[in-house]
Amino acid sequence: MEIAVIGTGYVGLVTGVCLSELGNHVTCIDIDDDKVSTLKQGISPIYEEGLQKLLQKNIAEDRLHFTTEYAEGLREKDLVYIAVGTPQNDDGSADLTSVNEVCGSIAYHLEHDAIVVTKSTVPVGTNEYIKDKIEAGLVNDVSIRIASNPEFLRQGSAVHDTFNGDRIVIGSEDDEVLEILEKLNAGFHLPIVKTNLRSAEMIKYASNAFLATKISFINEMANLSEQIGANIDHVAEGMGMDKRIGSAFLNAGIGYGGSCFPKDTRAIISVARDVSYEMPILENVVDSNERQRGVIVDKVMERFDSVKGKKVAVLGLAFKPNTDDIREAPSIAVTEKLLAEGADVHAYDPAAADNAKRVLSEQIHYAASVDEAVDASDIAIILTEWKEIKEYPIENYKKHMNYPVIFDGRNCFTLKEAKDSGIEYHSIGRPVVRS
Prior knowledge:
The structure is a single chain. This protein is of the alpha/beta class. The chain has three domains: 2-195, NAD(P)-binding Rossmann-like Domain (Rossmann fold, 3-Layer(aba) Sandwich); 204-290, N-(1-d-carboxylethyl)-l-norvaline Dehydrogenase, domain 2; 293-426, Rossmann fold (3-Layer(aba) Sandwich), CATH 3.40.50.720. It is 44% helix and 14% strand. β10, α15 (353-357) and β11 form a beta-alpha-beta unit. 47% of the residues are buried.
């Protein structure tokens, strides 16, 4: 099929590349000249495993193109995907500024009938609004039909998830549109859920809200376990064996971050507020996650009366491994607090350092390796469970640090490993290991 994808961010670029891999002809539209120029060279502006290889392959095979011009990008397209950002407003609601701009551009440049598919995460009812807005602004005598096709991709595993996910959700009020999109997505060989627009929109929000709830729940159990002498590893293992609960997302840590869970939990609370419905569970999930980000610094300050002048190695800045995204990452709050307390912060992340430099304080020193970050440090704090960090020999902390004290916000090491290494080790929901 002939497809246009508007937006080349995380969702749009992965969508465009993977649809072209199925054999479709895809043109990605973005108003950022520099980004489009980079993409035309086969260089991905985001860190995502396997993405650049597929990007280059489909450009070479003439199935994937990039442009800044809507007229070029929409020409003779059967499907038009909207995949622009919907960031959070101050009140927690979704900011639809980019969606509105895209609707105006589609209305002005569309020259033939098309199906408009919303990939962006949008509040319930937005697809109907998109249809009305585009139709109201149409310049040419064309008609549009609308569909919702929310994404369920994990950053760091987005390409893999596209071809190996749990399901594909398609929402529309038009049965023919559902059939067309079902046929298009059949190439991914995944179960397909067909429903109406509002249910498709709701599935996305409800899924992310539930996963956020599960994370906050296990973190609260971890905090309680520390107080009463339980081990959250054993608690989570016992819980996860119950098929009704499952083991996924039962890893205790310092909270969720990124572009999805924080934004989507607040957005669904905002949607509920608009219809005068209270969601106390999700409101507490958001509050719990905010508190959890401070747990690791609280542990540091409890152990040390002061960190003023101490060299602190912060290992991992991205909100999760295998991505360079630091949006809503715990590293933001952690480094701000450490600097406020007078610490000398040296950070290392294998992929997110460049993005971090644009967000974090200029006072932070950036290391080129774990060894460099921990060398002559007084405290090491693990914030992201990168493979490189998880597999870093624990005995090397003893070798490189002034006195090895590790605060592990992701429980990367077992208590036995910590004990055998002879280091002091603080983790989440587990007993402290003393050297």
